Amino acid sequence: MEQENKTDKLLEVRDLQVSFFTPAGEVKAVNGISYDVNYDEVMGIVGESGSGKSVEAYSIIGLLQNPGKVVGGSITFEGQDMLSKTKDEMIAFRGKEVAMIFQNPMTCLNPVYTIGNQLVEALKAHDKSVSKEDAEKHAMKMLEEVGINNVEKRMKQYPHELSGGMRQRVMIAMGLICHPKLLIADEPTTALDVTIQAQILELMKKLQKQNHMGIIFITHNLGVVAEVCDKVSVMYAGKMVEQGPVDDIFYNPGHPYTKGLLRSMPRVDAESYERLIPIEGSPVDMLNPPEGCPFAPRCEHAMKICLQKMPPYVEMGENHHAACWLRVQDCLAEAKKGNTETANIEKTEVDSHE
Fold first, then answer.
1. Chief location of this protein (predicted)?
2. Model pTM score
3. Which of 85, 129, 140, 213 has the largest count of CB atoms under 10 Å?
4. Range list of β-strands (E), the chain
């Protein structure tokens, strides 16, 4: 697609639904999520394990494994329908247009090939014209950029000869080597100490600006979100319960789950000692999810309607919305005061709540 024909939106996901069909029944791992990623933008996706963060990422790049299947919705990348692409088209697409940094480098790096062979192969797979010598030079440059020293030696080593942190940095170099337009980073700094983590985050921000790259940053670490992300999507039990600019999510959270995540995170700006407050209860059974809000069984503010019906998204500010009946109550109160601008809820939803 030509530059002049591009919109601000690099990726558009609409009502995406992904299910795993198991002998015990259908598991709706992703249940109707929507979001956009713009050029030069970093979107964070946060949520506890099992919320569907990685599953939706695998759906984008066509790596969803059986028994998983996309059963509804659409994924559009620069105007291209990703769900209609063939297997061969997705092989050509991955790495060059969209790349992914996986969470566990030990299962993603081939143990019988050297680091150099794997980096060169990743580059030559998408650029047939590059010579082996130039590919090796580019691979060594990428290793240097992610903080690996003595790169000539590292190119000849096998994955088991490197530490966990080094293997993770190799994975990051492999994801960035073709300069993709969209990078999906699934917990990319998990195995790194805080010093190297800061260096890697700074590198990713630098390369993002250089290449006008969009990034989807999947993480449990809200501190990382605050450092690198422009906006945040909060996932719980396969649903996006809140989305908004990073400052709004941190300083004006609208969903009780988001507030619970923030309360369970240590704060360096705390004026005095504060005890961390964990979110009580257990994640919902995805084989038998509640009819209403999936967080209702664990929510200290849950009402009867929370268990019966999924709340609508309520606007809380510019590009900030949350799916919570408490926010519906707030909007109803504002509507009664005559402030119709904040009462941005369909009449049918208001009537059902009343």
1. membrane
2. 0.86
3. 213
4. 9-22, 25-38, 42-46, 68-77, 80-81, 98-101, 182-186, 214-219, 231-236, 239-245, 313-317, 320-323
